[in-house]
Amino acid sequence: MAILLSAVFYEGIRAKHGLPPLRSLAADKGGLLALEEAFDRILKINYQPVFRVAREVVEKLPPEVQPRIGDLIELARKIASNRVLLRRDFAGKIYHSVVGDWAVRKNFATYFTGVPAAYLLARLALATPNPSWRGFSSLESIESFRIADLACGSGTLLSASYDALLYLYTRDCLKAGREVNVEDFHRIALEKVFWGLDALRFATHIAATTLALHNPEVPLQDMHLYTVPLGVNSEGMVSLGSLDLAQRTLHDYFGTGTAVKVSTSTEEQATINLPEGFNLIIMNPPFTRATGRGAEKEEGSSGL
Prior knowledge:
A hairpin with a 4-residue loop joins β6 and β7. The chain has 14 helices and eight strands. It folds into two domains: 80 residues; 173 residues, no CATH class. The chain is of the alpha/beta class.
């Protein structure tokens, strides 16, 4: 999955950086060497978290997978050329299938929100009239809005909220006779509006890539996606991921500086400077039910 998403992202931004398509590199070098060269080139520019993991995986793959890599490159090319698909959280659907086995669900109390349900929840939540919201007919109104998922996983609910917010922004702009600027919306939304937390680092990586793929050619300076601590650290402090939010204030919880901040360009230890409040928290809390009980196929309920 890391290779596929990285290949899609590469195809989406390569033209901007003057890099060759994966198909051309594969024709000259074969699929594995093509991916290695492509990822090495893009890593010299930036996008460390998106490509670093995929580069490490490619390096360890045996030559026998060469034919499948060719299929993957072709699939990545098709996905990258389909803007509608990039904006419909296809990555979330794959993520749910790949890591949705019972062992992962039990250990992390993970109950995935289906993609259709996520988009319905986001539309309902943002379409409900709220007197404290100023409407979305300008980029200034978008910039002051804050949406969070405190157990974001691969970013399905955040991606759905992005789609719902873009719809409302476009609708309100047209009603007010204002220009719709999708590029600036994307930059402001990802740099200021959306906040995501999760205990699984690979999940926050996927969430960052999923959100960025809504408009991959727009450069980003920052994103607010964090891998929160889980387990016992070197000082003996026990952290329970999102569960700690039930016992501490957000500012107390993140004042330790132990969270890992993830975006398409950086991954670093960071203290989270949270906004004063959120306009919307949309999430499927992992602590809504105990694990290890009930049938294997039991599904958790999504929550707002």
